[in-house]
């Protein structure tokens, strides 16, 4: 093998190393000299992320309410909301038990009567001391969580008449068994 090929091989190998060792920031690492000393940048004002729709946000659920959507909402609620709002929505999540200011119960009259869109907006933009989740919870999931919260509210205020006849009978049977 000619000497120049061997030398070129060395050069290229060094090249590979350089590319591996490029200067970069770890996610959320501080970056002195940049605005707020942050390496993470906020989107430029007036720009739209590729996965955000340019359509105006509708006032209520933009797709049919299905079991799949509710289950998705429940799963997202558990991940993003229950640490503070609690599984039941009463504002007693683990983060609150460790000292974070308690959010209001999701079962108060005010939030039971509020239009669905309010939950969508609170998730996207935050509310008071609550952080905005718009960057982490995409539009469809915001609706799914909003729908799940409505279901959670109904679950706490269901009337006997709301149940299917079979469930109603079962409940009556069980409560008869419970009474001594
Ligand atoms: C880190 C804790 C925390 C998490 C996580 C959190 N919240 Fe909150 N939330 C709060 C606090 C605290 C308030 C009360 C804020 C205030 O009044 O200053 C609040 C208020 C609210 C309200 C009441 C708004 C009103 O009109 O009174 C709604 C609705 C709500 N949150 C929904 C959600 C949903 C949905 C999620 C999940 C995507 C979520 N929150 C995640 C802490 C949290």
Automatic annotation (TrEMBL):
The keyword Membrane does not apply. PANTHER family: LIPOPROTEIN-RELATED (PTHR40394), QUINOL:CYTOCHROME C OXIDOREDUCTASE MEMBRANE PROTEIN (PTHR40394:SF2). Residues 68-153 form the Cytochrome c domain. Coiled coil: none annotated. The keyword Membrane does not apply. Keywords: Heme, Iron, Metal-binding. It comes from the Bacteria. InterPro entries: Cyt_c-like_dom (IPR009056), Cyt_c-like_dom_sf (IPR036909). It holds the Pfam family Cytochrome_CBB3. This is C-type cytochrome.
